[in-house]
Design brief:
The protein is an alpha/beta fold. It has helices spanning 10-21, 33-40, 51-60, 70-76, 97-109, 126-141, 161-166, 178-188, 203-234, 238-246, 267-280, 286-298, 301-310, 339-349, 362-369, 405-411, 426-431; strands at 2-6, 25-29, 64-67, 79-82, 114-118, 147-151, 171-174, 198-201, 320-324, 353-357, 375-377, 390-393, 416-419, 435-437. Helix 9 (203-234) packs across helix 12. It is elongated, with a radius of gyration of 24 Å.
Length: 445
């Protein structure tokens, strides 16, 4: 099929590369000429395992083309995906200005029937909004061209997005148009060879499904973090509690890892957006609002432990913290809403020096917080340890799971670790001579 994809972020670029891999002809549009030139060379501007190989191969074989000209994509494509950003505003609402702009240009430049697919995460009712914008633009041109607007929410995990797209649990399509549903079924057919995975529903139900799914996962994370905080106060071990409840098939083990809260581009934004949507429609989403409140508090748990430990010794001012991990989770360079950023800001504001390392997110962190006094971002995992008063582990990269503990002890002033991801066993850390503080488990002092 001939497909145009507008936007080259995680969703747009992964979708474009995976559709092309299945033999489709894809024109991917981005307004940034530098990004387009980078992609044309077969390189990608975001870190996502396996993505660069797909982009390079399909670009070389002519199935994947990048351009800044939406008209070029519209001229040859039957289906147009909108995958631009929908950032969260200061009030928690979803900023649809980029979606609106794309819809307007589609209406201004389309010359043949189109299926327009909302794949950006958007509030309920956005498909109707996009339909109205396109129709108004066509009316201003004096044109009457058939089109449909479909909702097709994405369910990709950053760090495993290519695999998620290639082997989806489900593909949600929101439309009342049988022809549109059939076209999407053909497009997604190669990704669902072993069973039917396409679920067709109403447009607004599809839009709601995306928010409901992410809010459910965020709820599980905030729930286990709440339980972890209670465990610390009653002398229970959250790792044992997790094993006990996760074995229940109704609960399961996924998304019940205690830690320093969720971050990234999806969960924080989508939780706030659904709270806002509920409020706009006269409903107080108390449970979802609590999920957000718990998560905001959880991002301060690690820095609170560090401050509490050093308080009897005169506080954190003048001390040095080594930090492993800046990205909001492993296998991505995304630092949006990352807990590490909150820890860095809070502790450096109190006069603590933070030396941080991340396998992929260093450059993005330098752009975002590199100006902060007291922050030094290094490109060597062990270099950050030199003379540090403590080590904080904030992101669960595999290379942090079994480090050289003897070297850690040798390079630091004191064997002190604050583990925000529960990567290590308290018993082992105690035997190795460390003071060790984790989430929801008894500290080793």
């Amino acid at each position: 099929m001939n497909v145009c994809i507008v936007g080259t972020g995680y969703v747009g670029l992964v979708s474009a590369a995976c559709f092309a891999e299945m033999g489709n002809n894809i024109i991917c549009v981005d307004v940034n000429p530098k990004v387009v030139e980078t992609l044309r060379s077969g390189k990608v501007h975001i870190f996502e395992p396996g993505l660069e190989d797909l982009v390079k191969r399909n670009t070389e074989q002519g199935r994947l083309i990048f351009t800044t000209d939406l008209g070029e994509g519209l001229a040859v494509s039957e289906i147009v995906f909108i995958t631009v950003g929908t950032p969260c505003g200061d009030d928690g609402s979803c900023d649809l200005s980029y979606v609106d702009a794309v819809a307007r240009e589609i209406g201004q430049r389309m010359t043949s029937p189109k299926i327009v697919v909302d794949k950006s995460t958007v509030p309920v009712g956005t498909a109707d909004r996009v339909r109205g914008i396109i129709a108004d633009a066509l009316e201003q041109r004096g044109e009457s061209i058939d089109f449909d607007v479909v909702s097709n929410p994405e369910f990709l995990k950053e760090g495993d997005a290519v695999n998620d797209f290639m082997k989806p649990d489900r593909v949600i399509v929101g439309t009342e148009n049988d022809d549109s549903a059939q076209a999407l079924q053909v497009l997604y057919g190669p990704f669902a060879r072993n069973r039917e995975k396409l679920i067709v529903m109403g447009v607004r139900s599809a839009e709601m499904t995306k928010y409901a799914a992410n809010c459910m996962l965020a709820t599980k994370i905030s729930f286990i973090n709440e339980v972890a905080n209670i465990c610390e106060r009653v002398g229970a071990n959250v790792s044992e509690v997790r094993a006990g409840i996760g074995s229940d098939s109704r609960i399961g083990y996924s998304f019940i890892y205690p830690g320093v809260g969720y971050g990234g581009s999806c969960f924080p934004k989508d939780v706030k957006a659904l709270i806002g949507t509920a409020a706009e429609n006269g409903y107080d989403a108390r449970l979802i609002r609590s999920v957000d409140e718990v998560n905001n508090a959880q991002k301060r748990v690690l820095s609170d432990k560090i401050k509490e430990y050093f308080e009897p010794q005169g506080g954190v001012k003048g001390r040095t913290l080594a930090m492993w991990g800046i990205a909001f989770k492993a296998n991505t360079d995304d630092i949006r809403e990352a807990s590490a950023i909150e820890v860095i800001k809070e502790l450096t504001a109190l006069g603590m020096t933070v030396r941080a390392f991340d396998p992929e997110a260093n450059e993005r962190a330098r752009e975002e917080v590199g100006h902060l006094d007291g922050l030094d971002i290094l490109d060597d995992q062990y270099a950050v340890l030199d003379g540090a008063d403590a080590l904080a582990v904030v992101t669960d990269w595999n290379q942090f799971r079994d480090p050289d503990f003897e070297r850690i002890k040798r390079d630091m002033k004191a064997p002190l670790v604050f583990d925000g991801r529960n990567l290590y066993l308290p018993e082992r850390m105690g035997q190795a001579g460390f003071a060790y503080f984790s989430i929801g488990r008894k500290p080793v002092k």
